Amino acid sequence: MIVGRWASSCLGDGEMGGSDRGSQNVKPHNASRNKPLWVIKMGGSLGVSGDCRAWLTALEAVAHSCRVVVVPGGGVFADGVRLLAEPCAIDEEQGHDLAVRAMQLYGHVLVSLSASMRATETQQDMQEAWQQGKVALWMPFTLMKQAWQLPKKWHYTSDTIALWLALHVRADALFWIKARHAQTQTHTLTALQEENLLDKGLSFFEDSGLLSYCLGPGQQQAWTAFAQGQGKNPARVVQWEKKIRHGTA
């Protein structure tokens, strides 16, 4: 199965975002009418790393310059689903649905920690959050139930779901925030997967042209400054393989 071409057919036209995806670097907010739309994946491991609140503060600051959608990871809640899978005979489809609900649990935790964050399910919810000056925290279950057309497999984790949403809303950039930095210097998708920093499900996407980045510990301040037009982007660009990757989903 080759996955990646489904973006236009399965996800619709996605009228929310829209920028020049051929540029080499995502641009922070300037005097243009529309603020850039950034999808931010908050890794579940941040919840136990001690960095969670610092990133929430950074997101609050970035939201003044960008339209921000946060995709929560599954964290310890998704780990619990995996732990139960074998003894409870939970198949992959059931497990995938439960893991998505685990993302929502972590999402509720994040919302409870930030007065600047609003839980959203639909694109209309997101628009309303931005109009209120809020960070939109996406609760994935409803939209995925309506529009997700990939197989429900363990390897499609919240990393892949974040990319799926970014394509759905036509985001200008996608940032995966992780609890650790990559050791590799190449920062290709394959190298990051080999370090278990990004999930295997991303291999079934061709390069969509979406600007994708990894952020790690200690980069909150520099990233906030960049979003406000006051510095360079500290995030590392994820280098997508040129060829469409083949495999069985």
Q: Which whole number gives the mean pLDDT?
A: 81
Range of strand content? 5-15%
Reported by name, the CATH topology of the domain at 36-177 and 210-235 is: Carbamate kinase
**Helical stretch tally:** 9
Which overall shape is indicated by the principal axes computed on the Cα atoms? globular
How far from one another are the termini? 6 Å
Highest-level CATH class of the domain at 36-177 and 210-235: Alpha Beta
> What would you say the CATH architecture of the domain at 36-177 and 210-235 is?
3-Layer(aba) Sandwich
Helix percent reads 25-40%
Find the structural class using helix and strand composition: alpha/beta
Poorly predicted residue ranges: 1-14, 19-24, 29-33, 243-249
Q: How are the strands ordered across the major sheet? A: 3-4-2-1-5-6-7
Order of helices and strands: HEHEHHEHEHHEHEHE
Taking the sheet with the most strands, its summary is: 7 strands, mixed
